[in-house]
Design brief:
alpha+beta
Length: 183
């Protein structure tokens, strides 16, 4: 009888380990699926045309640079690092004027703004951009569209500048989704 109870205890331990491992693998798969799932957008004009799917997702942390012309703040350039995860770990590239996204491996995509929508009055708008140019092999090769979503901060100051030509850098974060045409 002791032998049967020992076998049952061992079997239940093995089954628990298998279930736990399977659940863990499923969690990893779900996380990867989430990374490649298109985001929900507040405005229809931000939807990427059919026939394109998410190829990569990056998290940006940086600044939006503005210049005071004596009357209004004008946008100059974004400057941000791109990361592989939402905790801003694993730097994968840079985002800068153009607008351009360049990976650490050298691939790049230059976008052209198609649409904008403000999801949060205290943050820069969400955007849909079409790829104007891509270059190099890597995560940005063959990109067709880019979405900027889940923005935080980055708006031009509401107060006037102290002098003509003053520049200010306003911190922002965002998520960028990079799409490729489906085969």
């Amino acid at each position: 009888m002791k032998f049967v109870n020992l076998r049952l205890a061992l079997l239940s331990t093995v089954l628990a380990a298998v279930v736990s491992t399977t659940a863990g693998a499923s969690g990893i798969r779900n996380t990867m699926d989430d990374q490649l799932r298109a985001p929900q957008v507040p405005c229809a004009q931000l939807n990427v045309p059919d026939g394109n799917q998410v190829a990569y997702r990056a998290y940006a942390s940086g600044v939006q640079v503005y210049w005071w012309n004596g009357t209004v703040w004008g946008f100059v350039v974004p400057l941000a690092n791109l990361y592989a995860d939402p905790g801003f770990q694993g730097k994968i590239g840079r985002h800068y004027g153009g607008p351009t996204w360049r990976s650490n491996s050298g691939s790049l995509v230059i976008g052209r703004r198609i649409a904008a929508c403000s999801a949060d009055q205290g943050s820069i708008p969400w955007l849909l951009l079409e790829a104007d140019e891509t270059d190099g092999a890597g995560i940005f090769s063959n990109v067709t569209y880019i979405q900027r979503v889940n923005t935080s901060g980055g708006l031009a100051p509401s107060a006037p500048g102290a002098f003509d030509g003053e520049q200010i850098s306003v911190p922002y974060t965002a998520e960028y989704y990079f799409y490729r045409r489906q085969d």
